[in-house]
## 1
Amino acid sequence: MKPARFDYIRAGDIAEAHAALADHGNDARIIAGGQTLMPMLSMRLVRPKIVVDIMHVAALHGIAASGADIRIGAGVRQAELLAWPGLAEHLPLLHAALPWVGHAQTRSRGTVCGSAAHADPSAEIPLCLLALDATLELSSRRGRRRVTAADFFTGMMTTARADNELIEAVRIPKKPAGAGYAFNEFGRRHGDFAIVACAAVASGDTTRLAVGGVADTPALHELGALGGKELDDALDAFAWALDARDDLHATARYRRELVRRMGRATIEEARACRD
Amino acid sequence: MSSVANSTQWCGQSVERVEDAALLTGRGRFIDDLGVKPGTLHAAILRSPHAHARLAAIRTDAARALPGVAAVLTGADIRTLSSSLVVGVKAPVECWPIATDRVRYVGEPVAVVVAASRYVAEDALDLIDIDYEPLPAIVDPVAALDPAAPVLHDGLGANLASERAFRYGDPEQAFAAAAHRIAVTIRYPRNSCTPMETYGLVAEYDAAEDAYDVLANFMGPFSLHAVMARALKVPGNRFRLRTPPDSGGSFGVKQGVFPYIVLIGVAARVTGRPVKWIEDRLEHLAASVSATNRVTTLEAAVDADGRVRALAWDQLEDVGAHIRAPEPATLYRMHGNLTGAYDIHHVSVRNRVVLTNKMPTGLNRGFGGPQVYYALERLMQRIAVELELDPVDVIRRNLIPSGRFPYRTATGALLDSGDYVKAFDIALKDGAFASLRERQAKARAEGRLYGIGLTAAVEPSVSNMGYITTALTPQERRKAGPKNGAQATATVSLDPLGGVTVNVASVPQGQGHRTVLAQIVADDLGLMPADIRVVTDFDSGRDAWSIASGNYSSRFAAAVGGAAKLASGRIKARLARMAAAQLNVGVDEIEFAAGKVRARGNPDNALPFTRLAATSHWSPGLVPVENQALRETAFWSPPELTAPTEGDEINSSLCHGFIFDFCGVEIDRVTGAARIDTYVTMHDCGTILHPGMVAGQVTGGFAHAVGAALYEEFAYGDDGSFLTGTFADYLVPTAMEIPAPLILHLETPSPFTPLGAKGVGEGNCMSTPVCLANAVADALDLDAIDLPLTPAKLAGHIHGAERAPPQRPAAARTGKGRALHGVGEARVDAPPETVWRMLLDPGTLAAIIPGAHGVAKVSDTHFRADVTLGVGPVTGRYKADIRLSDLDAPRAVTLIGVVTGALGDARGAGRITLTADAGGTRVTYDYDAEIGGKVASIGGRLLDGAAKVVIRQFFAALVRHTGGAKPGFLARLFGRGA
């Protein structure tokens, strides 16, 4: 379990990272916290020619309010966001979900944007980005663009990021007044990938439920003000539409049932905590 | 004179562990921490991605040519320089540490690269080119018995490796007379205790001496030293086996490093250099040692009041792909105590051992106990349920009565000591069983799912080395000569400054042997534990050892501790005679206390211990030879451990502790998760030498058992693919998942061990899984339940029928493991004849097979290609072998593809049908695919997506190549699972 040979570049600034990506494209991998990439390198599941370390790029660090958004740079570790004093006030959903991301040890290394880049369909951070309508800031030597979370996660561990692009930051809208949030997850063990994770955002007469761990990407469903049997029916249809799969840890039927039950509980919890 | 020291008894106290200072400050000396000689090479092992395949060709030229590679060894090389490992049943079958003619499980070694570094060695693995001819695999032990099943070992002619029937008392009569016959059938799954440190070794070969020297984190039993020496074709005295000072857990598992000692030993011989190999976690999970999975039917003849009169066991043991020593020991370790803690006089047993395409099995904490007690204690609960009795009464009624010890069981064990009824009653009282019942009643009244489980068990320890021969018939045993006993050894020596050193062959893996031995010898010699230096790193060339040496069957406290006491006692007797002469008192009046050797009743008439202890070094001329004290080695084998009788009665273990557990478990109605609300475990392990370590052993065994019960399983697909290759899929619980049990004790010293101690380290691995299962069965009112008790499995009993899907029917997604099925269709703007020609043309195939570097046409219907496939972040190079069959030009063809590469392999068959459709062609397809190897083990969740992408790319390219199609037509091209 030793990596194949690769070269390492410690990017000093964004331009240097862009240059490496422009020169090597898919043969280069960005490393930030390394919590996923390092084991994949060791298992030779990935064999990049170049690994580009962006953790020493000062411009990628920092959490900042930016208009209606909170902007989280690519160098921000999950533990840093969890410890950010504004988290509960501005991003209550992430405040609830981040403790479910791996373990304290992995959070102290892993980054917020790295989790988005990896796009594991069971991961909590992509789920929250989708539920919160976040935007990813991508850049390359050729320019910059913004992609919504809904467009960014295109499949299992695949994203809209082009080979030459760097995720510079993610922008997450601040909690608007009156919104309520809830997060629930079921995994086999503490810190495991979710079998089913639910994030709900309720505001006025709108309710959106995002579900992770079931489909190839986190999935979002708008449920308006539905309640009672109508809500159950809508959740049932959503559960079926997710194309759940059997795997070692749970059956498809089990996942659908958790979407129905945990989904409903999460929605009710979010509605109840609207302020 | 210290009156405190005078009265101090170290045994029985939780003294600070001498091991901990080094371990807690990162100064442990594990195999991979130790320096190696200059020039040491590093080995990496290529392993089979197939569960069953013939090795048609192995091409190693490219690997050998890689700079830094010293050698590439295959089965042929190993066959030349070693011989087969001895197999524990009388059958014409071999067991090699590497595949020779075919592979029989995923992870079986196929080639060994020896290179300047592990990195280079792993680079070279990628360059080895192997042609596998896949064979049908057999995974299920019952199916393996089918005469039509694929046979693993031609020498056996079938997969049944051993079958024996036993009869004790008069079971037929007991069953005929019984008021009730109650039975359970159990499928016990595979799991392992997964030590934190994996296997590791450094092997050297001395050509001048024709001798091997191996340093390995092997744990015994050292009967395997003989197996290894024979395989390496040297006498035992030319195979020196040493162990490092520290070993990071074993739980039986590191017994399984022994085939690698042979394999890497040969590599050292071939290269003429020391060779180091450290097993990585992927290798460990796929190919180290698993506990056996077992199918058991157990039936009881029962009186109306729940009293069990007879048991009928039928055990089908699955040892995996090879009968690797010491198997089939798992099946026979418990033979003497198949009646558990109960007074049952009539027993019949049918034991069968079967081979399947899975990892070979071996020692694992609990060794045979979990499988036996799961059946026995599920049965006891079923008796209570079916006869509408209180399970507490059923257990009590059947326990061996007080005052009947030593008690000879029907199958031959001599239960040394205990008072089971008393321990049972103490546990119910001190564990507050009555309030647990109230808690359950309250929970149930609130509509919650809450169950109570109980288990009584006998925990055997200090195995009789002869029990394994119970697998042979009495005739076979007579021919082979009797095997029995369990030699324990310990050496106590005195140095010229009067210091005391203890050497043992107990090979600890973190248990704290050094601390306990210091306590024992300090008590004996009236010293402080810190005065005693205990050395546990082992050297077969210098230490006293025998075949039973090692760290297994919970033998340390009873056997090794006892041998140390005996060795110390001999030194003490000599010193006492020496002291008596010097102090002018009788030997009977000498006492050892507070660092002095003195006259009892006159403490001023004393000699410092160190001065007396040094005497035989400095002035032996002053001491009669029979009183000289320098070094004593005790060999101790208890006489109770006799060979199996003609009637197959076997005292399989020397000591038998008693365990009674009960627990309360609540099941979440939404998730099906089982939460252990309360757990009480009562132990009688004889005399307790170190309470803290006993608590540690019980807690550790409990943690392993919670894993086995609720989380862990080595899972295999129906095709033998291995599905739990990382700790993301093989779920070991952490401190977050394991509650602290309430531990209770009753101490009934063993009359058969020098210190009265018994083993205690494995008991909860035996009792806890079934105790939890009984609680779950009680909570959910289930007749039958097998491990692991996963949330999805339990939810299946709670959630009830599912509503039908709202619109479209869900395509059935069946099958276990990584089997994929799919259907789909596409429309192509070319007539069927054109599409047909393309499918049979290497040029077109090269263009449309995703990632193909070139397609070689072997025949009109057989193609080979090199392809690079990537899904998400995962990229790998593969060899594709594609055959076309059932050709119906230009209407239909079947594509059979086998894709093999370093990441794993995929096999698929798809039927493609072409139908003319308005000037174009409608292409429909229907495929089945299976994926195995490293990818199946690691990226389980990635695979469905991978297959989808590859198939999508194939058909998209086909469409492009024929001139395109309507935009967007691929959007929903694939059926579920595609």
## 2
Amino acid sequence: MLELVIFSTLNGVLYGMLLFLLASGLTLIFSMMGVLNFAHASFYMLGAYFGFQLSQWLDFWVALFVAPVCVGLVGAAVERWGLRTVHKWGHVPELLFTFGLAFVVEELVQMVWGKLPVDYRVPALLDFHAFELFGTTYPAFRMFMLLISVAIFLVLLMILTRSRIGLIIQAALTHPNMVAMLGHNVPKVFMMVFGFGSGLAGLAGVIAGPALVTQPSMAHVLGPILFVVVVFGGLGSLPGAFIASLLIGLIQTFAIAINYSLGDALSAIGMARPMQGVLSDLWQVTVAQVGPVVPYLMLVLILIFRPTGLMGTREN
Amino acid sequence: MTALGLHDVHKSFGITPIIRGVSLEVGKGERHAIIGPNGAGKSTLFHLISGRFPLTEGSIRLNGEDITGLKPYQINRRGLSRSFQVTNIFPKMTVFENVRCGVLWHLGYRYSFWHNTRKLKDANDRAMAILQQIGLADRAQLPASFLTYAEQRALEIGITIAGGAEVVMLDEPTAGMSRSETAHFVSLIRKVTEGRTLVMVEHDMGVVFDLADRISVLVYGQIIASDTPANIRNSKAVQEAYLGQALESHGEAEH
Amino acid sequence: MSDATMTAARGNPALDLLRRYGIWVIAAAVMIVLPKIFTSGAALTTMCLMGIMIVFSLAYNMLLGQTGMLSFGHAVYYGLGGFLAVHAMNTIAAGKLAIPLPVVPLAGGAMGLIFGFIFGAVSTRRAGTVFAMISLGLGELIASLSLILRGFFGGEEGITANRTKMLTLWGVRFGPQIEVYYLIAAWCFACMIAMYAFTCTPLGRMCNAVRDNPERAEFVGYSTQMVRFITFCISGFFAGVAGGLAAINFELMNAVNISGAQSGVVLLMAYIGGIGHFVGPILGAVLVVLLQVFLSDLTGAWMLYFGLIFITMVMFAPGGMAGLIMLHLPLWRRGTLLQIVPSYAVMLVPVLMGLAGLVTLIETSHHQLVKAATDGPAMKLFGIAYNSNSLLPWIVALALMGGGLYLGKLWGPRMADAYSDAAHGQDSNKREAGK
């Protein structure tokens, strides 16, 4: 039991930190541009595929630095030649544009790399066990992922709290209309913000690719969860996104590890499990099976009881 | 008989107090103007009364009923209707429909999805009558966004009075208008608020002294005087706080 | 829209009747005659699908186009309606329930209404982006649940039914597809009328008011939340009816019908057709079903084209097809429509060039990346045979695209001039009206 708790906690924190790499970019883009980027997870997927391709051609370590930059450039280009045109129609068309983009990216990825998962391997340098506990090993690459995402988190924190850009971003988070009044070249700022956020997502993809599965559906599996994170945390709130990322990371990891059903619980306390009726399945379902549903349940519940999200202040 | 009563109303945004204890009584059928320098909190006061912002403290009564903390639509249903300082209409709908939107609830059609609006004679007639009153009858079928600024301001008033509210609140109805338009508007406002209670915020002192039965002067979130126009004009305190400078600039504007 | 007809109503009563109901008579006639013209089995199946999707996308547009609510999870109500209808059909077949097949879609509608009520109560408390996110979350929730609750949803395989084992009504067994077609057409027609009528009701008009200016709507006595909520329920009902029709048509419901992908498709249909006009979603449903059927036969990359069409629409024609058509209504009224045809004809050259280039690029890439490994590099496009791994087709494709883009940019302003010339009367009308 203890081993399960330790490993699940590690994995949960790791998954949570990865989510935050994505959620922070999404929050930044939403707060400054007002665009809820549906294609954010697509940039994450692009990061994984670029990382895969570059580590095939060159080396994982090159990919680690180059792939996020490439994804960032793609993001900037999308903003420059796509979103900017749509901007004048309002926020809903912007959202729809990114929705269509996610669709197109998935199709393109399928076309270029095929529908099956690609063989994106952990680099040889990190292909060993970091430690062994109660007879179970923990891969070094996962520790490396954790290290990278924590490092990025700390760098972001430093930038946000210590630098001039950080102050501007913070101001923009609380007063969304302020960016325009700062006298900066707003379109350029938007392009950079979008590129930067995409790049962060790309980085998450590069490091997550070898550990998880790199396949065309990875974007639309993660995308909705990402929205849960930012809405749950409170739209536009970075601390909220951080807490929500960790929470959802941990809950999902723990849920997968627990193989009990409600029926088992009933039997354990000496009651017969109901076998009939449309909902009889509910009693057979194990917690592990319910795992994927939990984030959405959390979303619905928080919106009922605290409509602005965990740390959010904005109504819309 | 009091139509609208404010009792010790406070409003703070964060730690900044904007309205600092306003008490005010507006009698039935009275035309009441609220004046004061920029940033005194006039529009905020309007937002508080109409339910757009919640109060921090105090209470508001409409025809003797407590309306504190009610939603805008609940207050509107109880007979208080307001216009906005920045034109706030339904730009994509026709002028006629804009006014009819203001009529529907108050004729009892509510959320009906079983009436055909084309056949609602009472609603359509009333909307048309109001368009006649505000002089937009010949614009009825145009999209509201096609109207000129002054016409949109008139439409704004049309929507506001359409429901037949007893208490009508107008937020700077003549802002941004030429002098001839303003004169036209004063008579329009007088006409459409006949027999109703009017509360208005206005910067144009000509309009204020022309229309109002009583005037309240709001300075830094407090009412420093509430009296007849003549007494307000002669009040020393008001002169010092605000009016002297406002009348002067009004005078300058006339030259 | 409704009031333009109101003023027009003061002429000849017969003419007025024709004007008001003529379009419906034509629609009914078209629906009756179509299967006589396109008699093949494939055409019939396609038209059945169109009928279902018209109902679904019109229901969807009650939210997006009329009330300004962007939903990413409307397949929930379509799917639940469909699943209930399948179960209802099986119950009837087992002899436990005595209702005829044509009424089954109503069961689907009831299911959509009930869940619209439950989920609407949660999600319509918020508007805008947050509403969109909640709808996405609820959609994913139900889609995930559909794989877990096997009893009701049948897991991956879904649930099947047999529509011919029902009570017969006037001897119609709904075995042949043509009988199903007329059942769907009748429901589709009735739903179209009902949903159009909805736009003319006080609630329907206030939907537009809430969409355009929610704040002002609150100050004329309407709770925007209540307007959204009731509309959501009604939209759920019609989506459920569409699901019920789908259940009858396919005799199968599975997890795909309730998934996010299905929600995405209905959004695409409504938007491509044009969310600003009542006919938009109808056009969109017809076009998208056609694309689905024919494009998927023509090319393996059809989903990509689909996405690109959608993005192009969002970027350059946010009014959709209906919006583009309406843009020419003033020209038609003025009788200047023919005047711009030459200008459009010239524009066709760069457009076709660019399209040919793009298609060549996509098809050659698709062949090279997906098919070349098994089928070899030889391929055929526009009747021309070539090798996908030679350089020439790529150069041609890029040249065509570049040329099309360049010429298009050259002619674009001229075309815009021609348009405003033809529509000039509209401008001066506006100026007159402004006085």
